[in-house]
Amino acid sequence: MSAMCNCIVLLSDNHTITQSRASTIKMAKAKLKEKSNYNKGFTLVETLVTMLVFTLVIEAAVAILVSAIRLQKYNLAYFKIVDQTSYALEYMGRQVRMAQRDSSGGCIASNSRFEIKQIPAPADLGITGLMFIDSKGVCKGFFLNLSTNRINEYDFSRGQKILEITPDDIEISSLNFELLGQSGMDLIQPRVAISMKVRGKNPGVQPTANIQTTISARNLDF
Question: In the chain, helix, strand, coil percent, each to 5?
């Protein structure tokens, strides 16, 4: 009987020890889980560094976007002034290409096809320009009006009227003509080299362009 009692007490003690160990292991696991959950978060330094990097990336992206928009605006304004200037050059080219020799000397020097001279009255502004006789025998000229910075056409057939051939939203700061092959004995076809400096007048965006072209007379110079 005594032996049986000792066995029961021993079993009871073993069961108590087993429960104590199980409880200790459970508590240890709970602490490990709590520590693991705590380590999943960010520290204050890590958060500040992340925010700084994010801010730098956003600022760089915004700077690139603003630069691209400015470049696009500049390119659009540049192509606009080139397009408008091309129209003026095409208009002058059609007139100059069909110029005739002035056999009487009533418009320019006798037997000349072109001449750079002062624009006559009523456009007597003390400004020189390119004078010639067009295909219809009319005395004409092109010059830069310094008061408006626009290219003007002198037309004797319209009561010596002055016509503006460039729009108001571009500014011609310089207009130069160079004559080549004016002598009938040099065996060189007469031609006119035209060069100009153009600037846009749009607020904030004012691109500039240097444009040059050479126009040859269509009629053979014999």
Answer: 45, 25, 30
Average model confidence (pLDDT) across the chain: 80
Contact between residue 148 and residue 164 where contact means Cβ atoms under 8 Å apart: yes
Using a cut of 0.85, tell me whether the model's pTM lies above it: no
Nearest CA among 165, 173, 146 for reference residue 96: 165
Give how far Cα 169 sits from Cα of 27, 129, 166, 197, Å.
83, 22, 9, 14
Q: Find how far residue 208's CA is from the centre of its chain.
A: 10
Confidence of residue 32 (pLDDT cuts 50, 70, 90): low
pLDDT in tens, 43-86: 888 888 889 999 999 999 999 999 898 888 888 888 888 888 88
Cross-strand pairs, 43: none
Report how far Cα 58 is from the mean position of its chain's Cα atoms. Answer: 25
Residue 53 to residues 58, 72, 189, 210, 221: CA-CA distances in angstroms?
Answer: 9, 29, 68, 45, 73
